[in-house]
Amino acid sequence: MATPPTSRDALESDPRLPPTALSSRLVSLAPRLAAWVTLGTAAAVLIGWTLDNDVLKRVLPGFVAMNPATAVAFLCAGGALLLAARQRLRAASLTLAALACAIGLVKLAGLLLGWAPGVDELLFPEAVERTLGTGGPNRMAPNTALALTALGANLALLYRPDRTRWLRAALALVTMLLALLALLGYLYAVAEFSGLARFVPMALHTATLFLVLALGALSVAPTDPFPSLVLSARSGGTLARRFLPAALLLPIAAGYVRLLGQKAGFYETEFGLSLFVVVIILCFTGLAWAYAVALNRADRERDIAERERQAAAERLAELERLKQVNQFKTNLLNTASHELNTPLTPLKLQVHLLRSPQTGPLTERQRRAVDVLDRNILRLSLLVQDVLDVARLQGGTLPLHRQPVDFNRIVLEAVESFQEQADQKGIKLETRAEGERVLDLDGQRITQVVFNLLSNALKFTPPGGTILVETGRVGEEGVIRVRDTGMGLTPSQMSRLFQPFSQVHDTMQETRSGAGLGLYICKGIVEQHGGRITVASPGPGKGATFEVSLPGPPSGGP
Question: Which of 358, 393, 403, 447 has the highest count of CB atoms within 10 angstroms of its CB?
Answer without folding.
Answer: 393
